[in-house]
User: Fold this.
Amino acid sequence: MAELNDTYRKSTLRNGIRVITERIAHVRSISLGLWVGIGSAHEESGVRGISHVIEHMLFKGTPMHSARQIAELMDSIGGNLNAFTDKEATCYHARVVDEHGPLALDVLADMFMHSNFDPAELRKEQQVILEEIRMYDDSPDEINQDLFLKSAWSGSPLGEPIIGYASTVSSVTPDLIRSYMSTRYSPDAVVLTAAGNVDHDEFAMQAERLLGQMLGGLSPKDVSRPEFFPVRVVQRKDCEQTYVLIGVEGMAVSDERRYTISILDAILGGGMASRLFQEIREKRGLVYSVYSMHNAYRPGGTFAVAAAARPQNAAEVVRLIRSELGQIAVGGVSELEVARAKEHLKGGMLLSLESTSTRMLRLGRTELNVGRNVPAVEVAERIDAVTKSDVDALAASMFGSGRFAMTVVGPVDEAFDGDALAQSA
Assistant:
């Protein structure tokens, strides 16, 4: 079964693995991604972080190649090999010169299908991940991002940190990894993507040979929609700035209003011309960084504004953020702002498509999130179709409810912990 649309092609292997390519004949590179639609949100409490541990361990050797040989092999062809884990997926990816595409797929498939999970290597890698956890613990911005989701989505696996906890990471064993993968890494959850100078039929035939023996039943379903709690949480930390996150409930990644919220995001805090940047940084000089973000997942999302300021300015920054959110909820946006945001979004998308890596990532994410390819021309058309009234209505519904969550990390004092926090949030 094959699906054809210009340079985009999709096939399904006999075991259910989806193979998707986008041919770009004029480039000399290929970017490949081996995706599993399983991430930290699918983990039970006792194994938090195991998806991230698996990501690390797939680089630690197979019966065919040791960890060093994998690294030397990719270096010898000038390629890049890496991976990432997020809340709903894990991706193992490579970028190579087109003539080495088959070799890169061979390496990725070998890692994915035949990793050793050697106990000694696991112990070393657990120490590496514990150092990574300590690194995040030294970053107030990272702490606040995790604190916000864990507080606002309390009780949901989506609110838990991707990297897990020291205790759960340390308890992972080779047998636990094998058991976890056998019940979650099933063919129906796997998507293989490639963008660049790639021949789809040859790529799919090689995928069948390398991955066609993978077995398994249906992968676990996504978690249910998380409940959003308008909480206020302060965590004291000795650092130079106070880090603030103020947010509301957002929407799922497949929500039809995703183009509207992208425009709202761009107007509020998506660039140097945004309202928050102009009001808080340019006009008043209170911050170096202030921005908004919509974190969208398959069951739901959050929309938040982040800023960092000197402790004595933090309460004023919070007041200004809330003021901007209130103004846009009541007064809406201008036609000029909407037009500028549309061109900002379309321009950024088109520039990013000059990268085969970006195209490969888009193929995987759209397949896992909405089950189909979403061409750039469709995205541009959907962006252009958004009206000022669409943005106004969304701003009013999101920011007019009063259901704001706020987290603060930094050298906060009693006044900010009490009166200023209560008045501002």
Summary: The first strand starts at residue 2 and ends at 5. The longest helix spans residues 119-137.
